[in-house]
Amino acid sequence: MKHLECSQSSLPDDIALKIASLLEVSDLCALGSCSRFWRGIYGSDCLWKSLTRERWPFSDLSQGSSSSSSTSIEIPISKGWKSYYIKKHNEMADRVAEVVEFVRRSPTSESIQVGDYLRAIDNLHSMQLGFKDVQLNFFNPKLNALLNLVGLHYCIKWLQVQAEKVLEALECSKISDRQVSVRWWKVGRRFYGFRMRDESHCCRVSLADLATERGDEVLGVLHRGAIHEVLQVQISVADCSCSPWFC
């Protein structure tokens, strides 16, 4: 054990920090329990500052310095970046739980109207939720497909995460094959002065397809909501035993 401790402490700090910076937070915490040397690296302020900025890129996390911009918000990190990371992680989890509960309070847990659906996504945007937050809190196989879809939609339309990264995250979470059904009604077209019957459209599609061009039409309907010629949009969990189809 003494030999192991000596070999680790002989590593230059910059190399040890580089190694630590390549790890996920859960792996980093495990590394910090290996030895006194790695515990010191694990608690490094610069490491947690980088992790914080990577996870919440839209937040202004300046450390008490004056700013010339009147719109910037300064957050003093008085107890260190690790403490701030943990505090913000817990705050995000609490706020996300409110959104999850909001979606679950819809008339049925398996269906939701587009107004409530878009309100849930707007709440995520107001929180400045990062991609890692979505992976942790929404790409969860224990949640139903509607909540998975809320996180997916937010990643694509607001965070503009690349499709490859979204697909990888869906597959790692084992939810890529989950399906949702989207039904929308459009105002009937006019024909020789007469208005035809309102048109009903319905598509069942997997979460994986919604992350690619195959799902552009459905995701476009969800993003616009009930406006202009679209009278109503309803989203529901589809039967996963059936193959996806488009209409």
From TrEMBL:
Domain F-box: 5-51
Alphabetical list of InterPro entries matching this protein: F-box-like_dom_sf, F-box_dom, FBXO4
One GO BP annotation of this record: protein polyubiquitination
GO CC annotations on file: SCF ubiquitin ligase complex
Pfam family, one: F-box-like
Domain of life (superkingdom): Eukaryota
Protein name (database record): Uncharacterized protein LOC107426912
Species for this entry: Ziziphus jujuba
